[in-house]
Design brief:
Blueprint: H1 4-10, H2 15-25, E1 35-38, H3 44-52, E2 58-62, H4 66-75, E3 81-83, E4 97-102, H5 111-116, E5 121-126, H6 131-141, E6 146-152, E7 158-163, E8 166-175, E9 177-184
Length: about 190
Amino acid sequence: MKNNYANALLIRERTKKKQTQEFLLSFFPHGYYRKLVGLAGPHIEDYIVRMEAKGFQEFSIYEKDGLTAINQLASIKKPIVLKMEDVLSADPNEEYTFYDLDFCGTVRYLKEHIAKFKNRFIMTFCCRVSITETLDTFFTVREESILSASSETFPIKHQLFETNMGKYVFVNYKDGAQMCSIAKIS
């Protein structure tokens, strides 16, 4: 059995992921959110530097995997709060806080997470299930109905969804594995 942390270290430069993240973050006002609650992954120093450039000043990072957390602590040079627990324990309604939730799983196993975080977020999932199942599960768990959907190609290929509870941007991409990100933008 391969170690996920070791595998993640092999692919340091995930250009599609970074491009997607940059695009989705452009929908949120730069510098408005002071705190970032997130799942930083194995390259935490790169992540923190990128997010500081977006105006974030305070970081609360969650990590359940012990090996990843040890390596994060060894490589980080910035002051952050690293919590060895599931991000489900985070307060989803902190003022001036943005939630960057980059999960390693599919929507099938993250329903509680999808339901908990209501606003100001980007959620990233593995797409080992179909895009249709991913979107259906996501909006069903949130108890939202899609009112309109459109596809755009600029600056990157994405879909816009309006539901009875707000607006979302969805990007499907491949960087090592098939992934997708959903941002709640209003």
